[in-house]
Structure formats: C-alpha cells, structure tokens
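Many groups now describe folds with learned vocabularies. In that spirit, our science desk offers one protein's residues alongside their backbone shape tokens.
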Amino acid sequence: MTRAEQIRGLLEEYAARRRENADALRRREEEAYRLDPEIRRLREEAVATAVGAMRKSMGVRDEARLRAIAEEMRERGRAINAEIRFRLQRLGLKENYLEMAYRCPLCRDTGYVGDAPARFCACFERRLSQMRAGENPAIVRQTFETFEESRIPEENNQRLLLLGARRMCEEYADGFPETRWKNVLLLGAGGLGKTFLLNCVYERVTRRGFAALNVTAYQMFERMRKQHVGSDLEAEGFRDMLEAPLLLIDDLGTEPIMRNITIEYLFTLLNERMTRGQHTFLATNLNRTQIMERYGERVASRLFDKTAGVCIRLEGKDLRTL
C-alpha cells in the first residue's frame, strides 16, 4: 500500500472518529435532558442570547454600544454556563459532560494542526508510522533513544564518526523545518548505521508532528516507473515524493537503472525539491565517484551541492557482523 493510500484510509478513519464523537455527544445530551429538562432550556437560551446579540449589533456603528452588547452577551453566557455546570454536578456528571470529546485535543480528530499550510498532527503521523511498521517492524525500533554507543568499535575513530553523524542527524530532526541544511547525504559502506540514522530522523520528525515520507530506493524507482507509464492515479506516488515536506530515500544506488526513467526522474525529483526549498535526506553505499558514474554529472551536482546540503561520511567495520 502506498503512503497516499494509507493517508486516504487514515483520513477516513479520522472522519469516522468525528462521527462517533458527535453521536456520543448527542447521547450524552439526551441523557442530561432526560434527567433535567431545564438544561435543554438553558442551552437553547444560550444560543438565543448569541443570536440576539448579533441582531442588536446589526447597523450599530457606535463602538461603545457594540462593546456593551458584546459584554452583555458574555455576562449572560457565563451565568447560563455556571447554572448548567451546577445542574450537571448535581446529577453526578462532569462539568464538561456536554462538550465534544476528542481522542486528540490538539487536532480535534481532524489529523491536521496549524494554520495554512497545515501539517499532520503528531497523532496522525504516529498512526501512519504504525501502519508502515506493519510492513517493516524494524522502523519503530530505530530511534535516537535506542542508539547503542557501546556496540560501535573505537578503532580508527569509527565511534567518533558515528557519534558525530548521530549528533548532526538529531539536530537536523529536532530543528526541522528550520535546519542549517535542507539536504543531507549519508555516505558509507553497508552496515555502518546509515539506515538506522535515516529511520531515526524520520521517527523524530514525525513524532514532532511534521509530515515526512520515508522510501527505499526501489520504492522510489517504482513510483518513477508508474509516473512514466501509468495513469494519473498511479502517478500519485511520484507526486507524493515531489511534495513531501521531508523526503527520506534509503539505499540510493540499489534501484534498477531503466532507460528514460531512473536518471531522468531522479534529476527531476532532486531539482524540483531544491527549487522549492524542500528537505531531502538520502543514504547510499556509493561514493562520490560511483555516484558520478551511475547517475551522471547533473544528478551528482544536485546531491553534492554544498549551498543546500551536507555530506556525512561513515567508515569502519560492518556493525551487523559484530
């Protein structure tokens, strides 16, 4: 399942939550009205008071009069709310019994927070991560908090290099979107911790409530291929990569090279994201020379552009064999 499909499904899940919230509130209202009919009258009066204040304000240009009307409405509203709370408590019910209850008070079960452009709420991103973890359970275990310094050899400064890389990646994740560099390229042989750090960045950024897209190089290639040969629906995957506030690509260099697709679309992806000022985080086993040979100068120039990004090189023994 693509991220776009997961997001659509999750938005439907959140819409169902809101319907459940509304149904639950109606049931609580009916219960309170049955136990004390005066509560219904008081709530209707509160609505009528607000409507009446609006009508009184129509056509009034005197600022003092407008303030007096608003204060009169607020004073009556406070009195009505106090009476409702008193009656609810007398029934043994909580003061907020007649308020909408949300599973997430930050986004009010919409999945979004902030002003335009809104971003996904942390609760929404956690659910996405859990869904994705169903496909790759290792991701949920790879966080900065589970980083094990003791497993890293000290010989040839391997531990110092990886600790420095970890510090830079954590600063990047904690500072996003106001980072020193837009782009990060992790270089090094297999088993040095690049995928771990990439997943740590993804976990921290999404935990902070920002939207991010984490794909392997092969998944990236499949999105490119569908963009090239498929329908508009199939092309959504590539558009998601173009538009993601933070795009993370793991194992760059392991994807197939297909004529008119791999190199051309990778250049488009990198170039468009740089033009838009978006953040891209990549990890690869290739060195600079191998990247140049595989993708050509245009792609390499984007990957190694010092004005927009930083390269972090790791060296040492394969940690998976220790």
User: Anything to note?
Assistant: Residues 181 and 322 are 33 Å apart (CA to CA). The two ends are 34 Å apart (CA to CA). The longest helix spans residues 3-35.
